[in-house]
Specification:
By secondary structure, this protein is α+β, with helices and mostly antiparallel strands. It is 43% helix and 12% strand. The chain is built from five helices and two strands, in the order H-H-H-H-E-E-H. A two-stranded antiparallel ribbon has the order 1-2. Strand 1 (76-82) and strand 2 (88-95) form a beta hairpin. It starts with 15 loop residues before the first helix and ends in a 9-residue tail after the last helix.
Amino acid sequence: MNQKNNNVSQDIPLPFTVRYSNLLNSSEKVLYSDLLFLSQKNGYCEISNREIATLYGVTIPCVAGWISSLRTKGFIKIQIAHFNGGPVIERKIYPLSPEIESINVKEKIEILRNVNLKKGKITYSELA
């Protein structure tokens, strides 16, 4: 019998610090969101660059660049295990909650949170 895990959400909101980061490109932001989703149960995920490349329809070196960028910019932590000092046999990716890195991001968050207070109401109109 297939049981649904009610503790795991199917939707993961992208944190403001990631969404409005000027440090990441759009593909890195989407990948971060997927890593968050995959890490819900254990706090980390074990997905290979090959699996990510297949899911996204890109090359393995492209994924390696995104992973490296996320790691060096403090958005993920990676833990690897070697067998007898040989090749990597396991990789765990831990999504981190990065601090807001610039005043511009803080301003964007404040604008989004207070839009109703500043305008009183939101008016929608179609663009021509």
